[in-house]
Amino acid sequence: MKNLLSVPIKNDIYYIGTNDRQTELFEGMWPLPKGVAYNSYLVKGEKNVLFDLVKVNTVDDYIQKINEIVGEGEKIDYIIINHMEPDHTSSLKSILDIYPEAKLVTNKKAVAMLNNFYEVTDNIVEVKEGETIELGNRKFTFYMTPMVHWPESMVAYEETTKTLFSQDIFGGFGTLDGGIFDDRIDYNDNYLEETTRYFINIVGKYATQALKALKKLAVLDVELICPDHGPIWRENPKKIIDIYTSLAKQETIDGCVVIYGSMYGNTETMAEAVARGLSEGGLTNIKIRDITKTSFSYLLSDIWRYKGVILGSCSYDNNLFPPMNYLLTEVSHQRMKNNYWGIFGSYSWSGGALKTLKKYMEDGNYDVLDTQLEIQGSATDEEIKKLIDFGKEMAAKILDK
Question: What parts of the sequence cross the membrane (predicted)?
């Protein structure tokens, strides 16, 4: 059987990626309810070239797809490694066992990683920024994109087909279920949210470096984008470029997420009152999140995208509710910058939550509302009114009234 699972893309460029529906957490942290695709590409010609690999747990399917294109007696001449993360390289030894003469094309920072991860030190071709190399009848130019999102990250561009092999840039969570091209899928319904969450969880803290990379690549005439995760962009590559640029700039939307931590329901009631105030203040895009039931992956994504963020926490042992404390640690790593923040706290016999929330806001130099409520026990009718007014205050700030 030939060419049943591999997919021809353009001019002897083939998609040979795999889907992973078994792994539950990406990097051991981020939920994968829709799985994830590990994209790899085979460029066939005078020299056969692999672009990035797949995670080792899907290597059997991967080898089958390679065999559909590279016939008996043929070989893989080069493996281009744009990014060393194991979801793209852990199958390397399996591939080298089959094609031991394959040369590895990568950059200086990745060379040490090849040794550290896989004890591979031979047959390495080192490329530099802006360097063009000829592999058989193909020419590839390499551009370094450090910290997007590892220090050795780079991309490769083929001018003849105007193809950008972009590694994790322009990637997203989610398996490719039949359609692999942007014109063969419903991207907005099936992939946009997962792309957004992928960027914020994986790349967000390096948004400044991502913008630098996007600016560098903007000079290229790109008609086809082949990322290491998510769909291949052949009809409208500008769409994913614009999405990534907006995310890298943390362009927020007019809405507010209320994230609360509650042990016995009192703080949840307060969060409901705040949300009522947001609505009465004219805001329509409102989301309430229970921090004990929602993965930090989604919370960080909400905070990145919504202009308004309100945090409400009960006190726990004279301090902040532990899940809220952890969330704020992650928020500080993400370097959020374009939000309006509101905080409130509750306590039973001694405070702590609001005091710690205030310190986080001060240390991070966040734009926080002056009103900062702290309520003992369950909220009285008068305190509920204050919480509603607090929500209205945030709505007015978001809508600039």
Answer: none
